[in-house]
User: Which sequence fits this backbone?
């Protein structure tokens, strides 16, 4: 993406660390957790790769097209999963994220020299509004939950990879990252 190098590298680190944690979450005993974590790991690492400052390493045009194909496939998978899953809203969020990645990759592929371009103001604005709303919603969901009479958080006792508040924090950080990336389009 185009933009200042320091924030770009911070975004790369945030997305890569989030993707790494999502890979660890794939070891969960809960199948739905593993499936969601796999999609989120792909998104985290893909965002990290796309956020590398162009001044450091400007990828060739074919790399942007490869991103578009990978995230196009991820969008189709999210759409397919949304139609049968009880967690269809989560899959629809993955669909929006994957479509945003395809959009940004296409904008970068069509830009002169791959150094950024201008996408559709309407589509960029719509995606920015969506991710701003998502970040606010996800942030509210991170507020402390009620504590049971025993002093343990309700629903406690899960493994560290199955902790919902950490998964929510990862989703929040990816939402912030997506918002930041869309600002550069």
Assistant:
């Amino acid at each position: 993406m185009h933009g200042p190098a320091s924030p770009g590298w911070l975004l790369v680190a945030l997305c890569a660390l989030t993707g790494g944690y999502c890979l660890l979450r794939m070891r969960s005993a809960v199948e739905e957790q593993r499936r969601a974590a796999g999609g989120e790991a792909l998104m985290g690492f893909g965002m990290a790769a796309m956020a590398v400052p162009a001044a450091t390493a400007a990828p060739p045009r074919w790399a942007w097209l490869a991103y578009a194909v990978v995230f196009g496939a991820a969008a189709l998978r999210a759409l397919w999963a949304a139609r049968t899953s009880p967690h269809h809203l989560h899959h629809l969020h993955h669909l929006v994220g994957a479509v945003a990645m395809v959009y940004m990759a296409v904008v970068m592929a069509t830009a002169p020299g791959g150094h950024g371009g201008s996408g559709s103001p309407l589509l960029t604005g719509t995606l920015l509004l969506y991710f701003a709303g998502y970040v606010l919603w996800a942030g509210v969901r991170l507020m402390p939950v009620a504590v049971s009479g025993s002093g343990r958080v309700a629903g406690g006792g899960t493994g560290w990879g199955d902790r919902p508040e950490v998964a929510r924090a990862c989703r929040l950080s990816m939402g912030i990252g997506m918002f930041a990336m869309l600002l550069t389009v």
